[in-house]
Design brief:
- The structure is a single chain.
- The protein has about 800 residues and is an alpha+beta fold.
- Among the domains are: about 40-155, Topoisomerase II, domain 5 (Alpha-Beta Complex), CATH 3.90.199.10; about 240-320, 2-Layer Sandwich (Gyrase A, domain 2), CATH 3.30.1360; about 500-540 and about 555-580, no CATH class.
- It is about 30% helix and about 25% strand.
- A four-stranded mixed sheet has the order 14-9-8-17. Strands 10-11-13-12 form a four-stranded antiparallel sheet, covered by helices on one side. The chain has a four-stranded antiparallel sheet with strand order 20-18-19-23, with no helix packed on it.
- A hairpin with a 3-residue loop joins strand 29 (about 645-650) and strand 30.
- Helix 2 packs across helix 3 (about 65-75) and helix 7 crosses helix 12 (about 340-385).
- The longest helix has about 40 residues, at about 340-385.
- The chain is elongated and about 155 Å long.
Length: about 800
């Protein structure tokens, strides 16, 4: 007979096979059930121990014996994975409430592996027995094991919400679960509250269960994130270790006594040592692990000048002493994966527990009813003792006697068997009274069980009573502290820096240098210092460019330099495009924040804004709203008493009070400072402060020195007056100076020339006349003036 071949699509075959595999992993391996909070492997280990008789009050047995029992009967997978699961169920740092009582080496929080299964022993804990207590009352369904030889429970009749109490984690196909452990007392109180009021709000439930409770303690920072995770089933919480400061013999040390959940202590210490090598924890001299049986203790010795608060923040920032714990409350509900809220998980458990208690009552009711029938038969026998004895004596066999009893006394077969099996001592007067009392008690118990089964209130009260018993027996205090202020979880860079006074220099060749003393500032050969900024390490430095951008650089990011260092190139810190050039550098310190920043443009606009406007979390902001073909020529810090001096290319000059310019927000155009003739533009924009003279540079290379007080003060928005007697000269640049200042001249070939301000004659009046010699040794045309900063 020829074979019939049916063609199938390989895509469909692969799809079906993968879906079957995915379903098997999701349902049979990776995800816990919402009812008992266990994955199949955990459930089988507990049931295997139960079958071996490893009760909490009994003796331990070899772990290999337990693994063999579970592996051979229920869980046909790797023995190593099975043993690792058994080990974790016994670890007090992994499980909030261990379900296995381990004897021997079961690993450590340092990541040490447990001893081989042939060396360790285990049994159930008393709390684990509460997971199995109602198993014998036919409360949960059983299914055949993998080879169909015996049965195993599909679920355990858990007496408390184990899914929340011990949490769960697992990776399935396309999904994963991360449910943190919780405090037993709080979870039970939450369950009871929902039993009493099914409409209990999420807010009220969260007051009862404020957050996870990790076995390793520590702190959770931010209650809002917990609430979000509890209501949506997903989120993250910040888990931080616990530390304190100790002082002894003028030495200070930070001591870590608790670490975040699932953090390996050895790796944490290795991470701290790495950060010491990277100089992020340069104030820590050594790290010691002094942990013992009394508890965890990791000691960090500090240098004498260390700021413990900064070291603490750096530990949180750069090591696993602070860790984000993912929450994804995914579990199986009727064999379907479902992300559930805190309230939904407890509601599912409560519904399951009601079903378990009801089935237990039904099972007990059947037993009591059967016992009642027997007791009634025995009472009939006692009441008709002489007749029964005569009937049995006259019967030819047990079968005949049984038939006669059923027929004459109108009893059933069970009762007849009980009478025939009754021993003679039961005929004693005390036994007869005892049977009557048992009969009365049975009737009361049956009445009580029927009421329990039929009454929702009685059922609820019974569950509450049992939950309270578990709470009183196994409850303990919360280990993890919850700090409601979530801002404490954010480790801002400012929290990692010790605020100190520093000096930062900016040179002609765009080099930055930071030092703790002005005396350590120096420039390289063929370079000159243009700015020396005094500020704190938490302040920022502002770099203004001609296109209206402002680049911000935190002072603490600049490397500290020794006295002989010439600094670092600016591009190492800021990526400013080559088409932009810097017009000025300002410190954003307290003085500038509390005053104003003025920006002057080529088209004669003057914009004044509060220094606070330039505080930003980004490195580049817009400093001014420029109109088309306009550009920034000056930016500077301003006080209320300063004058503003503008000089146009055609020599028009105006000086007016800064009070005439109304402060505006940062992203504005500002106000017109000078009315320019067509084709003219502002070439010099200065803030006249303590300096006494203006040095002007013409396009022809002529220079002159003019006293500031000699320039007449006008109103803003005027045309100004001529700076030069020769109106044919074009102004190229200008700089304010005092006596003994040195001026740097830069030509269009980037050559630099130096000139003392005193070498230029001072004029009482404004004009620079033809008698001023051009600087003849220039190789190119002069373009810019700078004032060399005195060191």
């Amino acid at each position: 007979m020829s074979e019939k071949i049916t063609p199938i699509s390989i895509e469909e075959k692969m799809k079906d096979a993968y879906l079957n595999y995915s379903l098997s992993v999701i349902v049979s391996r990776a995800l816990p059930d919402v009812r008992d909070g266990l994955k199949p492997v955990h459930r089988r280990i507990l049931y295997g121990c139960h079958e071996l008789g490893l009760s909490a009050d009994g003796t331990h047995k070899k772990s290999a014996r337990i693994v063999g029992e579970v592996l051979g009967k229920f869980h046909p997978h790797g023995d190593n994975a099975l043993y690792n699961t058994l080990v974790r169920m016994a670890q007090p740092f992994a499980m909030r409430y261990p379900l296995i009582d381990g004897h021997g080496n079961f690993g450590s929080i340092d990541g040490d592996n447990a001893a081989a299964m042939r060396y360790t022993e285990a049994k159930l804990t008393t709390l684990a027995e509460e997971m199995l207590a109602d198993l014998s009352y036919n409360t949960v369904p059983f299914s055949e094991n993998f080879d169909g030889t015996i049965e195993e429970p599909d679920i355990l009749p858990a007496a408390f919400p184990n899914l929340l109490v011990n949490g769960a984690s697992g990776i399935a196909v396309g999904m994963s679960t991360d449910i943190p452990p919780h405090n037993l007392e709080e979870v039970i109180e939450g369950s009871i509250a929902l039993l009493k009021n099914e409409n209990l709000s999420a807010e009220k439930l969260e007051e009862i269960i404020p957050g996870p409770d990790f076995p390793t303690g520590g702190k959770i920072i931010g209650s809002e994130k917990i609430k979000k995770a509890y209501r949506t089933g997903q989120g993250r919480v910040v888990n931080r270790g616990r530390i304190h400061l100790e002082s002894e013999d003028n030495k200070r040390r930070i001591v870590i006594t608790e670490i975040p959940y699932q953090v390996n202590k050895t790796r944490l210490i290795e991470g701290i040592n790495k950060e010491i090598d990277r100089e992020r924890l340069q104030k820590v001299t050594s790290v010691r692990d002094e942990s013992d049986k009394q508890g965890l203790r990791v000691v960090l010795e500090l240098k004498y000048d260390a700021d413990p608060e900064i070291v603490e923040n750096r530990l949180y920032k750069y090591t696993d002493l602070q860790k984000k714990q993912r929450i994804n409350m995914l579990a199986l509900n009727n064999d379907q994966p479902e992300v559930m809220s805190l309230k939904e998980i407890i509601q599912h458990f409560n519904a399951f527990r009601k079903n378990v208690v009801k089935k237990r009552a039904e099972f007990k009711l059947e037993e009591k009813l059967a016992d009642l029938e027997i007791k009634r038969g025995l009472k009939i026998a006692i009441d008709n003792l002489d007749y029964i004895l005569q009937l049995i004596r006259n019967s030819g066999s047990r079968k005949e006697a049984k038939s006669s009893l059923i027929e004459n006394l109108e009893i059933n077969e069970t009762q007849a068997d009980a009478i025939l099996n009754m021993r003679l001592h039961r005929l004693a007067r005390m036994e007869r009274k005892k049977i009557k009392n048992q009969l009365a008690n049975l009737k009361n118990e049956i009445r009580d069980l029927k009421e329990l089964i039929s009454s929702e209130k009685r059922l609820r009260d019974q569950i509450i009573s049992e939950l309270n018993e578990i709470k009183d027996k196994y409850g303990d205090k919360r280990k993890t502290e919850i700090i409601s202020d979530s801002s404490q979880a954010r480790i801002d860079h400012r929290d990692l820096i010790k605020n100190r006074e520093v000096f930062v220099s900016f040179s002609l060749r765009k080099k930055l240098k930071k030092a703790d003393s002005r005396n350590k500032i120096r420039a390289a050969k063929e370079d000159e210092i243009l700015n020396i900024l005094k500020l704190n390490s938490l302040d920022e430095i502002l770099f203004f460019t001609q296109i209206g951008s402002c680049y911000s650089l935190p002072a603490h990011k600049i490397n500290d330099h020794h006295g002989l260092s010439t600094g670092d190139p600016l591009p190492e810190y800021l990526k400013i495009p080559p088409e932009e050039f810097i017009v000025n550098v300002l410190p954003l310190n307290d003085q500038v924040k509390n005053s104003h920043i003025v920006i002057i443009t080529e088209k004669g606009r003057v914009k004044i804004s509060s220094g606070e406007e330039y505080k930003s979390s980004v490195s580049k902001i817009k400093a001014v709203n420029l109109s088309e073909q306009d550009r920034v020529i000056k930016a500077g810090a301003l006080t209320n008493d300063d004058d503003i001096l503008l000089v146009s290319e055609k020599g028009r000059t105006i000086k007016f009070s800064s009070r005439e310019v109304s402060p505006t927000s940062r992203n504005t155009k500002g106000m017109i400072g000078i009315r320019l003739a067509e084709g003219d533009r502002v070439k010099v924009g200065l803030i006249a402060g303590s300096e006494s003279d203006l040095i002007a540079l013409t396009a022809e290379g002529r220079m002159g020195r003019v006293k500031i007080s000699g320039i007449e003060k006008q109103k803003r928005y005027g045309k100004g007056s001529y700076l030069l007697s020769n109106k044919n000269y074009e102004i190229e640049d200008g700089v304010l100076c005092s006596e003994d200042d040195e001026i740097i001249i830069k030509d269009d070939r980037k050559n630099h020339y130096f000139l003392a301000s005193d070498d230029l004659p001072r004029f009482a009046e404004i004009p620079i006349n033809r008698t001023h010699k051009p600087i003849e040794d220039y190789e190119g045309a002069p373009r810019e003036l700078f004032k060399k900063k005195k060191i």
